[in-house]
Design goal:
Blueprint (H helix, E strand, L loop, with lengths): L2 H11 L15 H4 L1 H9 L4 H13 L3 H26 L3 E2 L2 E2 L1 H5 L1 H22 L2 H31 L5 H24 L3 H32 L1 H6 L4 H5 L4 H9 L5 H8 L4 H13 L2 H27 L5 H7 L1 H9 L21
Antiparallel strand pairs: 1-2
Helix pairs in contact: 4-5, 4-9, 4-18, 5-7, 5-8, 5-9, 7-8, 8-9, 9-10, 10-16, 13-16, 14-15, 17-18
Length: 354
């Protein structure tokens, strides 16, 4: 046999690598992803998509890669929520049974973990080759931070350790901001000049937005009628969670153990939960959470203005809001200051529904 014959044989029978931009579904993949697809169908939101669009506004990501980045970000966000619902014992999300309630804990965990790895594979096959290594590092860092944030929230809850406000903010940044921050960092790879100029400012803006989102959700969980109707009234109290208002209440008066005692019960009793909300109201903790959110809104806008100045963008503050739309617009649209309208009960009326 000649060397040429051997080379021809190898070329003929060696499996050729798949071209880039192609992900072939594996056998039975559709079946194991049923919990994930259920979540996507019942939790339609444009928030993650808008965040990626904001990254594109700054970085000018080519269209073919913009869609890939949107898909990866949505995958990471959804997988994180699937796991978070299990860890929190949440039974409803947007008025629908959570995935693990419908399909079981094992199947939901498996689907979420599969999505984490699928997102990594998508990076290796669908992003430019020269960016793959850095993008994977960013993704791994984000996933580690996500699990640290979720883990600390569980650690405090299961050991009944009330964290400080600073510890809570760190947790919120890690838990709520991991997928979004990863998205912005990967987007920055497409524009090294902007990445170098204002990386720290972008990171700061996302950190502020992440803390805002977590505190806003904690506040709404206790006072929002719409939240109570679509999920469960004061679900965080049943979970025994150290939410932002609960932390303020407990730490502002350590000698008053009434709220801590109720959290230890993990109670579903609506009367006890109303009592817990009343305790937080009397301590000024609900108002403190509201004012903290409003202050964070201002800080997010100010941070966007810093980015505008650093990049030398000749836009007004109002124009900047549109350019960095999803961070500002999303949080203005869901601002806690709109919870106390005629469409929702005020903080003082929270005890009237159950």
């Amino acid at each position: 046999m000649t060397i040429n014959w051997y080379r021809n044989f190898i070329q003929k029978y060696t499996i050729k690598p798949l071209p880039r931009h192609v992900l072939v579904p594996r056998p039975n993949e559709e079946k194991i992803l049923i919990p994930y697809k259920y979540f996507i169908e019942t939790n339609k939101t444009d928030f993650v998509q808008q965040m990626v669009n904001s990254a594109n506004e700054w970085y000018g990501i080519p269209d073919q890669y913009l869609q890939v980045l949107k898909e990866i970000s949505e995958m990471l966000f959804a997988a994180g929520v699937l796991i978070d619902d299990i860890e929190d014992g949440s039974v409803l999300r947007r008025g629908q049974p959570t995935a693990y309630v419908k399909f079981g804990i094992p199947a939901t965990i498996n689907a979420a973990n599969y999505i984490y790895f699928l997102a990594q594979e998508k990076i290796t096959k669908e992003l430019p080759p020269e960016m793959v290594e850095d993008a994977l590092k960013i993704l791994i860092e984000g996933m580690l931070n996500l699990h640290i944030g979720q883990g600390m929230e569980i650690y405090w809850r299961d050991r009944m350790i009330c964290p400080t406000e600073e510890e809570y903010r760190t947790m919120a940044t890690q838990k709520a901001g991991a997928a979004i921050l990863a998205c912005f960092k990967v987007g920055a790879l497409f524009n090294p000049v902007h990445q170098e100029k204002c990386r720290q400012h972008f990171v700061r803006a996302i950190e502020l937005a992440s803390v805002y989102a977590q505190i806003r959700d904690d506040y709404a969980n206790l006072v929002s009628k719409a939240h109570a109707e679509s999920i469960v009234f004061a679900e965080d109290i049943t979970e025994g969670k150290f939410s932002f208002p609960a932390i303020h209440c407990i730490r502002s008066n350590p000698d008053d153990t009434r709220l801590l005692d109720i959290l230890k019960m993990r109670t579903a009793d609506p009367d006890l939960k109303r009592q817990a909300v009343q305790i937080m109201q009397e301590a000024g903790s609900l108002e403190y959470a509201l004012q903290t959110c409003l202050k964070l809104e201002e800080q997010i806008e100010d941070q966007c203005e810093v980015i505008r100045q650093v990049l030398g963008i000749p836009e007004s503050k109002e124009q900047l809001k549109k350019r960095f739309g999803s961070v500002i617009h999303h949080y203005q649209r869901y601002s806690p200051k709109y919870i106390n309208t005629e469409l929702e009960p005020s903080v003082k009326e929270v005890h009237l529904y159950g």
